[in-house]
Amino acid sequence: MAINFNNYMQERGRKYKDQLDRTSNEYAGLHTAFKKFLKVEKEAEQTRLELAGLWEKASNLEAEKPLATAFKNLAQTIRESEEVHSESETRLREVVQEAFRVFPLHIRQQKRSLSRRTKSPVESEVPEPDLESSISGFQNKHQNDMRFSILHLVNSLMYYHSNSLQKLSEVFQEVQNIESN
After folding, report:
1. How far apart are CA 22 and CA 97, in angstroms?
2. Helix (H) or strand (E) run with residue 177 in it
3. Per-residue pLDDT tens for 60-98?
4. Do residues 70 and 167 lie in contact, with contact meaning Cβ atoms separated by under 8 Å?
5. Which among 17, 46, 81, 105 has most CB atoms closer than 10 A?
6. Cβ neighbours of residue 14 under 8 Å, at least 6 residues apart?
7. CA of 115: how far to CAs of 90, 134, 161, in Å?
């Protein structure tokens, strides 16, 4: 009975390790894609700041005061939005990207722990709850970590976009109020 139970536990451990391998590969891919996303966001931020500089230059060349003011306000709005974007990006790097980077390391640790349990058979007939609680604990921790990371990602993006929309709406109203001759 103990041999069958140990074989069962070893087979179950192998299946769980295979699942962990697949999960680790998926999260490694997610981490790589997220790094690319942040790189593209940084490049887009630089482009928007260059655009703000061009609006600023155009405002200095504009003869009509209302248009010059609108150009300056647009440039300022872009800069302020990019400050918020930069803050959001920093939080995304520190929280979300770090979670994606660290998760495969947690999986390796879980696999090592699982290997130790399945390779050294325990004489008792009740080692299953220990393995089950370990798996369950790991899954709960992972779920909470990913939940927190996704909430942080969504919150950062909402904050940036809502801030940008608010500031751009103000500039839009200002431009609409310019009287045409």
Report:
1. 19
2. none
3. 998 889 989 999 999 999 999 999 999 888 888 888 888
4. no
5. 81
6. 118
7. 37, 12, 46
More confident residue, 160 or 179: 160
Residue partners of 177: CB distance under 8 A and separation at least 6: none
Tokens encoding 108: 């390796």
Q: DSSP label at 4?
A: H
Residue 120 · residue 1 · CB < 8 Å:
no
Please provide the distance, in angstroms rounded to a whole number, between the alpha carbons at the two ends of the chain: 95
Report the amino acid identity of residue 74.
Answer: L
Out of 8-22, 70-84, 140-154, give the one with best mean pLDDT: 70-84
Q: 125 phi and psi, to 5 degrees? A: -90, 5
